[in-house]
Specification:
Blueprint lengths: L18 E6 L4 H11 L7 E7 L4 E7 L2 H4 L2 H6 L4 E7 L14 E5 L2 E8 L5 H10 L10 H10 L5 H9 L7 E5 L4 E5 L8 E5 L2 E5 L2 H6 L3 E5 L5 E5 L2 E5 L9 E2 L1 H6 L5 E2 L2 E2 H15 L6 E4 L5 H11 L7 E3 L12 H11 E3 L1 H4 L3 E6 L6 H12 L4 E6 L21 H4 L2 H8 L3 E4 L2 H6 L8 E2 L1 H4 L19
Parallel strand pairs: 14-23, 17-20, 20-21, 21-22
Antiparallel strand pairs: 1-4, 1-10, 2-3, 2-4, 5-6, 6-7, 7-8, 8-12, 9-10, 9-11, 12-13, 15-16, 18-19
Helix pairs in contact: 5-6, 9-10, 11-13
Bound molecules: iron/sulfur cluster.
The site of iron/sulfur cluster has 11 residues, from helix 17.
Length: about 475
């Protein structure tokens, strides 16, 4: 089955990569995985998949498109079993292929193994070349498949040892959910780039990228999977090991700024409250003499609330988002991208006419989307348009699971703040400082990866993946 949605996204510059869900020991495992993936849809809109097991057989169903496009009553009913993992994925345009959907399942040594991956392996290319030299035949272009080959080729006997053997060879960002015939496994890389948490519902264990999926299925949040932790969930209960040498934590700060849902807790803390604090700090650093504060919905809304409440300036929904346009596929042409901005976000003319407006946005990537948006606000009659950004300028690409453009395409790596202001067509532009962003976080600054802002890559990247060389999970 292959369905292909073709929608236009104003968020074309920031592509999220993947949401994970897992459940052990529930009679409705596939249905709960479906609901979990539904909550995690914002983390990947291009494909979705569920693998289940009843301890005898494993079954899978995957497809292109939104969770609601891929699954229906019939195929969910066919996914019989009390163990399940699920995955939603976003990929670059070069990999919109059914074969690259996850979870990725293989049969080996009289067992089955399926994996769902969120992140990017920075040593994927040399590992893949090495495995190919040894005769491995790859079915996909995903770096996640390397993990499965490494497990299958490990000389160790027990699955637990084989998996740890395989994981000790990979580097970079990897939160994983895995399933075998009789167990569900959760993994977080030693730096902890991507989130993964543990919950419980009806006595069953649940793994999820974000707590919003736990909320939907009425699961209780138990705790984060710790960086470097591997949890095995089976009929004997839950068993945790931390087999890797400790590494500096590098939680992706962009999860708090943009990626995660504001109703989620990430890395143990509220996304909504962190975003509001970013807005409060933004006001302190860059006040604006304006008549109203207008968020770019939805990702700028919480920061705009913080900014408005700190400043005492009225908060207005001066731009309305059309929620019925999906984010499944990005058309690459510039013309279409600008058109997409107008389709998705429409300024409220009666509100903006003759007014001085401060737009609160979570970030600027290429600048083209913001430029088109500002033009639309001016066309709607705004007298002055100011913009405040709830993070510092993005100057460096991410190699840990987010497909920011190349350095050359990032406007802040090429232009000064004043030049960006002029390019976008603003009366003023203010970015939150790195110190201000870190001070707004619920965890100490040493816990975070900030390398897309400051270029300090916490895990060395020797082989920079090209856009379409190896795909990310
Ligand atoms: S480079 Fe930026 S987007 Fe990537 S993991 Fe680090 S903070 Fe997150």
């Amino acid at each position: 089955m292959q369905k292909r949605c073709c929608n236009i996204s104003p968020q074309a510059d920031k592509k999220e990569y993947c949401g994970l869900f897992g459940i052990y020991g529930h009679k409705d495992a596939a249905q709960l995985a479906y609901l979990g993936l539904y909550s995690l849809q914002h983390r990947g809109q291009e494909s979705a998949g569920i693998v289940v097991s009843d301890e005898k057989e494993m079954r899978q169903f995957k497809g292109m498109g939104l969770v609601s496009d891929v699954f229906n009553d019939e195929n969910l009913k066919s996914l019989k079993g009390h163990l399940a993992i699920g995955h939603v994925r976003y990929s670059t345009t070069g990999s919109t292929l059914l074969k690259n959907t996850q979870p990725f399942m293989v049969e080996y040594a009289n067992d089955f193994l399926a994996v769902g991956h969120n992140g990017t392996l920075v040593n994927a290319l040399p590992l893949r070349q090495e495995l190919e030299k040894e005769g491995a035949i790859f079915q996909t272009t995903m770096d996640s498949e390397i993990i499965v080959h490494l497990v299958a080729r490990s000389k160790k006997k027990k699955l637990q040892d084989r998996l740890i053997d395989a994981l000790s060879r990979i580097k970079g960002a990897f939160s994983l959910v895995l399933i075998t015939k009789d167990q569900v496994i959760g993994v977080r890389d030693p730096n902890g780039f991507r989130p993964l948490c543990l919950g419980q519902v009806d006595g069953s264990w649940v793994l999820s990228s974000e707590t919003c999926a736990l909320d939907l299925i009425q699961a209780r949040y138990i705790r984060e999977i710790e960086p470097g932790e591997v949890v095995f969930i089976n009929k004997r209960g839950i068993h945790s090991v931390s087999p890797f040498p400790p590494a500096r934590h590098a939680f992706c700060i962009f999860e708090y700024i943009y990626f995660a849902r504001p109703d989620s807790n990430i890395f143990g803390h509220s996304v909504y409250l962190a975003r509001k604090r970013l807005g409060e700090r933004l006001f302190k650093e860059h006040p604006a003499a304006v008549d109203m504060i207008v968020p770019v919905p939805d990702s700028g809304t919480c920061a705009a609330l913080g900014y408005a409440q700190s400043s005492g300036i009225p908060f207005e929904m001066g731009i309305i988002r059309n929620h019925y346009i999906g984010r499944t596929f990005i058309l690459p042409s510039q013309h279409i991208r600008d058109f997409g901005v107008k389709v998705k976000l429409n300024p409220v003319k009666e509100l903006l006419k003759g007014k001085r407006v401060a737009i609160i946005e979570d970030s600027i990537v290429r600048g083209t989307t913001s430029r088109a948006r500002v033009k639309a606000i001016r066309d709607a009659g705004a007298k002055e348009v100011h913009m405040r950004i709830s993070c510092p300028p993005l100057r460096h690409p991410c190699y840990y699971g987010i497909d920011f453009p190349t350095k050359e395409e990032l406007i802040a790596s090429q232009r000064t703040v004043d030049e960006i202001r002029d390019y976008i067509g603003l009366d003023s532009l203010g970015y939150l400082s790195l110190e201000g962003m870190l001070a707004s976080m619920p965890l100490p600054k040493e816990e975070f990866c900030t390398c897309c802002f400051d270029g300090n890559y916490p895990v060395a990247v020797k082989h920079k993946p090209s856009r379409h060389s190896l795909e990310k999970g």
